[in-house]
């Protein structure tokens, strides 16, 4: 038998190394990937959307966030710890998050790796699950719930790397998943706004309503289109907290009104990219927030930074002529 | 023929000597490896135990904070129950502070007693509408359950490390090496039968 030529041996070793790397890498042949839906709860498009988002999270924030959906897992706490260990979630620095959802047991757990325990306390994880994620699960929007919670994770993540070891030690929280429970009836509490109140005052009232987690879609400060939109909207406590926090941190520095005086836009400083413009319309003799128009025209990207969709500005284009005209 | 025989005799002796040396080296290497394995396993048990202790400490420290923060919301009945839990937490803290033998079983019993008290008091607190709906209760519930889960994970890992270590000590060579090193089997972190039963609460 002729001995293998040296190049053949080298090629064989390289091939084995590549195979080993592929098996070991997250998402590789031996790994279940970022979204492991064994219960078939998510559509293919939803799985792709979440996987893309979580790949972005890993690339830009160094957080390895995986999702497992399965039935009959029995002990979610133990399953999560063992899964993290078996699949190396979070890598050597333990910067991993594992969301385990068992729709049959109606339980959800978010396991936090050692490297993220400082940022994601058990209390924060419980808040994220109870006040954001499961609000969507209750109306059978599982993928939206996971994605909405990821936005809070990004806001909390920060860029600092905490020295830590691989794996996890049971940090995180397990809560009832509230699957298909249905949307809780919104409150009917009203807000007090003086007659003839200017746009800034209406915005201040909105901030107070959000701080009080007032999810009544029929508030006097909302335009008719906004009320229609909010009637079917999942408005989570965490979203309301975020709006209140954002408004508290953002000062209005400019107010622009349309020529006929029926519309107004409140603007923060141009460099405050986390402070979106607020649109208001005059209806029935009072200024009202036009969140429906805002929803169409203002988009939020990574890190909650806003940008305009000029084609959707419609009647509010007057406030952004420099954007509409272009440089 | 005679020189050839002499040649074979010399070769046979060398081979026997070589075999003897090989067996000797193999025996020494095996003993060294057994020793190193036992020492490494003992260190793994110690490291796992340190995790258990820090998890227990975290749990014991949480309860007084919980009691302080929830005092404003509590009725007399819940306050009495929480005082009992606080006493159990204090006992656990004291148990962690003293360094006596047989500590694992003792701490496991103290932890089980604290868990029993908390299992009684938490549903009572959760039944208070003003408290249940707020974020404060959610926060404390998450912290308490998180601390319990950390203890459970640390317990599983510690018991697994002890199982491996004790099994190695019982092996043929392990028993021999352990005897010369003075290594003793370790206790599992178990509260024992009856420790997880429902408590009798007199008010």
TrEMBL record, chain A:
Q: Which Pfam families match?
A: TPM_phosphatase
Q: Which taxonomic lineage is given here?
A: Bacteria, Pseudomonadati, Pseudomonadota, Gammaproteobacteria, Oceanospirillales
Q: Which organism is it from?
A: Halomonas koreensis
Q: Residue ranges of the TPM domain?
A: 35-155
Annotated protein name in UniProt: TPM domain-containing protein
From TrEMBL, chain B:
What keywords were assigned to this record?
Answer: Membrane, Transmembrane, Transmembrane helix
Output the superkingdom of the source species: Bacteria
Query: Which InterPro entries does the UniProt record give?
Result: LemA-like_dom_sf, MamQ_LemA
The protein's matches in Pfam families, at most eight in alphabetical order, are given as: LemA
Main localization of the protein?
A: membrane
Q: List the SUPFAM superfamilies.
A: LemA-like
Q: Which Gene3D superfamilies match?
A: LemA-like domain
Q: Where in the cell is it found?
A: Membrane
Q: Where are the transmembrane segments?
A: 15-33
Topological category with respect to the lipid bilayer? Single-pass membrane protein
The record's comment on protein family reads: Belongs to the LemA family.
Protein name per UniProt: LemA family protein
